[in-house]
Specification:
The protein has 287 residues and is α/β, with parallel strands linked by helices. It has 11 helices and 13 strands. Helices cover 36% and strands 25% of the residues. The structure holds uridine 5'-triphosphate (UTP).
């Protein structure tokens, strides 16, 4: 599988006021924008062509993945070779394409905008604000399961029962350890309507059948075209598996998730990890 789609056209209202002018995908987790972690996961999973679904206020993303000749020249001239390489490397990670979602009509509509880019091949979807920290890239875990079962795939994890109404719940039966067959799902269920405590979290492998389904999917929860409504129909007409993926997931589109990701990545960073541990333990004594 060589193609991936990153829907990144949401308004990011949970991270206002910063996201008034800075796309939430460009908010830094330590010293890299959130979307860079997602592109790195895709590339580490074997993806070569990436479509970012963007909107008219997100130019900063396009610029970030372009060359920056003046800056690069300056860094080279002043002997800052590591910085030069870091800046250049960002632009050479993958073939990155863009399409605009001209109206914010929901995640399902954003994915549908990828139809021309994808053609007939299966493709990966990585949500622009969900970062995964783990050994094997989550997209790779899903690609392996999708190929093994000749199916589409969704990434799932168990969430607290009171939290399921923030996500989509899935009706599943076990195929093997951590891999399940999906037979139904619902978007943001009330706790007593959830199919299970397993929620779909930010990663998908889809077949091109999804496009004709999304074209005929009416607006659902919140008046938006929901990807879950499309996936619900997809799992009824062709095989779908769910992978209970092995990684920690951060929703950097809300304040708690953003702070958790920032702290966890900083703790693992050899440049600041030990310093942060000391700082935090001093802080904890104060409170
Ligand atoms: P979210 O609901 O997390 O993003 O959508 P949002 O709409 O930006 O969030 P808030 O509630 O206003 O803070 C999940 C993913 O779908 C994308 C988002 O960019 C995010 O990656 N999305 C959502 C689109 O691309 N287009 C849409 O119309 C809606």
């Amino acid at each position: 599988m060589k193609k991936a789609v990153i829907p990144a056209a949401g308004l990011g209202t949970r991270m206002l006021p910063a996201t008034k002018t800075v796309p939430k995908e460009m908010l830094p987790i330590v010293d890299k924008p959130a979307i860079q972690y997602i592109i790195e996961e895709a590339v580490a999973s074997g993806i070569e062509d990436i479509l970012i679904v963007s909107n008219r206020s997100k130019h900063a993303m396009d610029d970030y993945f372009d060359y920056s000749p003046e800056l690069e020249e300056l860094l080279k001239r002043s002997g800052k070779i590591a910085e030069y390489e870091a800046v250049r490397d960002v632009a050479d990670k993958a073939n990155i394409f863009y399409v605009r979602q001209k109206e914010t009509k929901g995640l399902g509509h954003a994915v549908w905008r990828a139809k021309r880019f994808v053609g007939d091949e299966p493709f990966a979807v990585l949500l622009g604000d969900d970062i995964m920290m783990g050994k094997t890239p989550v997209t790779k875990q899903l690609i392996d399961a999708a190929e093994q079962y000749e199916a589409s795939a969704v990434g799932i994890q168990r969430v607290a029962s009171e939290a399921i109404s923030k996500y989509s719940s899935v009706l599943i039966s076990e195929l093997e350890e951590r891999i399940y067959r999906v037979s139904d799902m619902n978007e943001k269920p009330k706790p007593d309507q959830a199919f299970s405590e397993f929620a779909i979290l930010g990663r998908y492998i889809l077949t091109a059948e999804i496009f004709s389904i999304l074209e005929n999917t009416p607006p659902g929860y919140g008046g938006e075209i929901q990807l879950t409504d499309g996936l619900q129909r997809l799992c009824k007409v062709s095989p779908m598996v769910a992978v209970d993926f092995d990684a920690k997931r951060y929703d950097t589109g809300n304040l708690e998730g953003f702070l958790e990701a920032t702290i966890d990545y900083a703790l693992q960073d050899p440049r600041v990890g030990d310093w942060l541990k000391g700082f935090m333990s001093d802080k904890l004594k104060e409170i």
